[in-house]
């Protein structure tokens, strides 16, 4: 296939196919030029795919032309006119270098970029590494942290080289009303020798923020946690002073208190009569696979469920599944 593609490429160059096509479409409308350009890109993409798939195989000219025709017929073309700006929204894992003139990367926090992969299996990372060292080559378990580290570096390099004209990096200080740190990759970009300058947008208060109780409370929390460099005006300070007093009265009237979480945890051993009731002598201890999995993920949850036998409070409110079944029955009967 390689020799055949080389000869075919030389034939196209000698025939000056690209120059002739450009001369034919230069006087057409912009939308028509866009259509011909898509066909040309699809033609080149099919040739690249043929080179990858059949690189080391012998292919006849008839088979090559048949594959080329089939690839062109199966190609998909965008129907959006060239005069319309196209915005592509995708995850960081799918980004590629030099994909668009302008790229806006949002949500670059420590929790989301780089993405932290969690090992939820019964084997820890150390146990997986020990098994890989003891087994032969070709049979090994995937170590999530090491593989994820390599992938994150590749994604970061691809993102930094994604734009051809301008790249905008953004990181919020609050995510879902919770504070989050900036991505470590952005922290490195702010250091020498790159030393990229950052523009910080501070939260501002106005009377337009009074919409709902939840929105007002969220904005008060945001203002409290945000490092405000400039002082509020007398009108803004008076407004938020009154708003905070109203919120405090509402919380006190409804008996709502913000719990204080203690950092000092103490544990003690269960009494002998409690252990005898839970685990009688002479009775074998049986555990299910779900119980072992629960113990591995969260030992305290295992203690509450399988040792103390606690259960969640039942509610008469239907869950999402029951609600969906209820709607289906209504549509079927109507």
What would your notes on this structure say?
With 334 residues, the protein is mainly alpha-helical. 49% of the residues lie in helices and 5% in strands. It contains 13 helices and 4 strands. Helix 3 packs across helix 4 (61-74) and helix 11 (289-297) crosses helix 12. It is extended and about 90 Å long. The mean pLDDT is 76.
Task: Draw up the topology in text.
Layout: H1 2-14, H2 17-25, H3 30-53, H4 61-74, E1 100-105, H5 125-134, H6 144-160, E2 163-169, E3 174-175, E4 178-179, H7 184-189, H8 213-225, H9 234-253, H10 272-278, H11 289-297, H12 299-307, H13 320-333
Parallel strand pairs: 1-2
Antiparallel strand pairs: 3-4
Briefly say what this structure is.
With 334 residues, the chain is mainly α. Helix content is 49%, strand content 5%.
Number of helices: 13
SSE pattern, N- to C-terminal: HHHHEHHEEEHHHHHHH
Q: What helical percentage do the residues reach?
A: 40-55%
pLDDT averaged residue by residue = 76
Low-confidence stretches: none
* Distance from first to last alpha carbon: 62 Å
Number of DSSP strand runs: 4
What form results from the Cα inertia axes? extended
Major pleated sheet? 2 strands, parallel
Please list the strands of the largest sheet in the order they lie side by side: 1-2
Q: Taking Cα atoms only, what radius of gyration do you get, to the nearest Å? A: 31 Å
The secondary structure category is: mainly alpha
Strand content: 5-15%
